[in-house]
Every structure is written in C-alpha cells, then in structure tokens.
C-alpha cells in the first residue's frame, strides 16, 4: 500500500486531516460511520492509478479534532468542509466524489449546494430515512436509540441501532455473518470504537433527520449514481437509494457485499467504483 501525502486544513470549528494519493483529476472519498480516511485503504491505491485520490477524517473523528468537542453536528457544515477540500485540491476543475453511508448524505448535500464543483457523485446507501414513506417509524427508532444511549450507555444503544438497520425478520446471527470483516478491517474497526459515542450520539440523530432537496437532486441526477449493496436489499440503509433511483428514473447500481461492502469486498468494490466514475 502506497503511503499517502498527509495534509491538515483549518475549517470553521475544526482541523481536518486529509490524505492524497496518485495524480489526475480529483476524486474525493467521503467516509461514513467511524472509519475515517482509513476506510478507503482497500481501494485508494487502485483508484490512484487514474485519479488524484483524497480522503479525510470528517470533523470530530479521530484525527480531525473539533475546537469544541461538544459542538452540534450538521450535514450542511460537513458538506462545507468537503467543499473546502475541493477548493484546495482542485481549484480549477470540477471533481468526482464517492461516499458511503453518512458520508453519502454529505455528498448529496454537496451536490445540491455546489453543483459547479462536482462532475459526478457516487452515493452508496445514504440512510436518508426522511425520504421514505414510513419515515415516522424510523424517527421513532432514532428516538429509542438516543433514549437507550442516555439510560443504558453505548453498547445497548448500538444494539438497538443495529437491529433497526436490519431487514424485517432477519436473524441477527445472519447479519453477523454477512458483515464479518477481514482481519485488517476488523483491527481498524477496533481502533475506531473510541469514535462510536460521537457517531451514535451526534452524527446519527442529526444526519438521519436530514431532509434533502429531492427536486434539486432530481434535476442533477445526470451526474448522480445511486448505489446499494447487493446483499443488503430490504435493510434500512438500502431503501432510500432504491427509493430515489426509482423516483428519478435512474439505475440503482448494486455493489458487492452489503452496507459495509467497501470493507468486506474491497477489490470488487473498487473495480466497480472505477467503472461507474468514468461512465
């Protein structure tokens, strides 16, 4: 694996740590969950053959500290962070963006806010529950997660959250088998556990309450690829991408694996990502 060049960018209320590899047009990778830039380690080198590949730890995660550790988090501010990286790394040309999960929510807002900066966005399973017809049910789930977090702590709340993400009637043992990670990814997951309280306590409730400008996204859908895991059909994070693809009349592109296919199937995931970025 090639060692990336490391940089730091001051933004409003935080310092972002970012990584850059390769050369060519800019491809900004926006991570979801608690993985940070390292979540793209399995695909970044291959993509760097065609692109200047940049990823980063979003504000508040591991190596991108907040000035105020208790500051509330908003999708709009995270998207502004991404736009500042685009301005820094590709000031004269629009860029491509690929993002997963909560990072895909950021990417979609970025597309609607700064379309002149974006050539193509690949959004893998953005959990935009507010676009779904049963959004009220998922608001209740998020309220249960936060209530459990306050009363019982992190791990019980994480269990409630994970149960809510699974397809109805799924056996938790089956979900564990599907999401079992390779050793390197598992070790990385252990390192990111320290970020779980921040993610579950402040990113999840804010980001999953976010309502995108669906009409504006539809108007920009010629440069948007909505993606989902081949193994995650019926799970909550799959459904918004499928719903929006049907509404916009575009193909829902299925990537290998499930919601965490980037980690469980990195070679195949990266190969398909390269194809859809250049289509």
Walkthrough of the structure:
This is Alpha/beta hydrolase. Residues 25-172 form the AB hydrolase-1 domain. It holds the Pfam family Abhydrolase_1. InterPro entries: AB_hydrolase, AB_hydrolase_1, AB_hydrolase_fold. Residues 59-78 are annotated as: Disordered. This protein is an alpha/beta fold and 279 residues long. It has a single domain, classed as 3-Layer(aba) Sandwich (Rossmann fold), CATH 3.40.50.1820. Helix content is 45%, strand content 17%. The protein contains twelve helices and eight strands. It has an eight-stranded mixed β-sheet with strand order 1-2-4-3-5-6-7-8, sandwiched between helices. Helix 10 links the parallel strand 7 and strand 8 (252-255). Helix 2 (75-89) packs across helix 3 (102-113) and helix 4 packs antiparallel against helix 5. It is globular, with a radius of gyration of 17 Å. The two termini are 26 Å apart. Mean pLDDT is 92; it is low at 174-181.
| CATH level 3 topology | Rossmann fold
What number of structural domains do the residues give?
1
β-strand percent reads: 15-25%
CATH architecture: 3-Layer(aba) Sandwich
Share of residues in helices: 40-55%
> CATH class, anyone?
Alpha Beta
Count of beta strands: 8
Biggest sheet strand order reads 1-2-4-3-5-6-7-8
Assembly state (oligomeric): single chain
Largest sheet: 8 strands, mixed
Low-confidence stretches: 174-181
Pattern of helices and strands? EEEHEHEHEHHHHHHEHEHH
- Cα-atom Rg, whole angstroms? 17 Å
Tertiary shape: globular
């Amino acid at each position: 694996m090639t060692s990336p060049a490391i940089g730091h960018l001051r933004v409003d209320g935080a310092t972002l740590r970012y990584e850059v590899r390769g050369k060519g047009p800019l491809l900004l990778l926006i991570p979801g969950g608690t993985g940070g830039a390292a979540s793209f380690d399995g695909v970044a080198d291959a993509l760097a053959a065609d692109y200047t590949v940049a990823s980063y730890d979003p504000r508040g995660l591991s190596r991108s500290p907040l000035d105020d550790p208790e500051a509330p988090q908003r999708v709009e501010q995270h998207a502004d962070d991404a736009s500042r990286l685009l301005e820094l790394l590709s000031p004269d040309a629009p860029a491509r963006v690929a993002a997963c999960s909560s990072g895909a929510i950021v990417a979609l807002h970025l597309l609607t806010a700064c379309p002149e900066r974006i050539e193509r966005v690949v959004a893998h399973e953005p959990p935009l529950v507010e676009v779904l017809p049963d959004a009220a049910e998922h608001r209740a789930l998020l309220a249960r997660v936060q209530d459990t977090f306050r009363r019982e702590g992190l791990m019980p709340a994480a269990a409630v959250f994970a149960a809510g993400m699974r397809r109805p009637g799924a056996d938790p043992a089956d979900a564990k088998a599907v999401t079992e990670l390779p050793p390197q990814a598992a070790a990385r997951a252990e390192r990111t556990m320290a970020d779980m309280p921040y993610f579950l306590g402040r990113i999840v409730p804010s980001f999953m309450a976010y309502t995108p400008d669906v009409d504006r996204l539809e108007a920009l859908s010629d440069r948007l690829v909505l993606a989902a895991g081949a193994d995650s059909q019926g799970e909550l994070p799959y459904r918004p991408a499928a719903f929006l693809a049907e509404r916009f009349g575009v193909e829902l592109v299925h990537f290998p694996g499930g919601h965490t296919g980037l980690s469980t199937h990195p070679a195949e995931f990266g190969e398909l990502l390269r194809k859809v970025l250049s289509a």
